[in-house]
Write a sequence for this structure.
């Protein structure tokens, strides 16, 4: 199955990237190139919406880990949402990302971000 990648800037510096299809050794460069273009602009956060991703191979996992490392160098964040059960299991097995970077939905992510911002405001005020 081919891979398509949709990307949009949700807020300044916050990008939602949605791979659709199969992320494997034949298609990983499509996502890798799109993420590299976004990383050139030093984003604060990249949200990978995995709702329509059906399959991931080790090369797909490599793209995710590489992106996470690039973002960490600039204090950015990689967040994964809407993972299919089989993809979530792959990431759990190889322990690719900390659990606080994986959310079941956009709503859960928004709730987490809201709590974090309130906590920072309370600490400052």
């Amino acid at each position: 199955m081919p891979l398509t990648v949709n990307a949009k800037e949700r807020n300044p510096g916050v990008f939602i990237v949605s791979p659709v299809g199969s992320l494997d050794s034949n298609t990983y460069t499509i996502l890798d190139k799109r993420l590299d273009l976004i990383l050139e602009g030093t984003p604060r956060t990249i949200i990978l919406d995995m709702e329509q991703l059906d399959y991931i191979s080790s090369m797909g996992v490599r793209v995710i880990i590489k992106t996470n490392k690039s973002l960490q160098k600039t204090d950015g964040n990689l967040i994964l949402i809407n993972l299919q059960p089989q993809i979530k299991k792959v990431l759990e097995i190889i322990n690719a990302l900390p659990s606080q970077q994986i959310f079941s939905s956009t709503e859960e992510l928004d709730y987490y971000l809201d709590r974090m911002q309130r906590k920072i405001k309370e600490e400052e005020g």
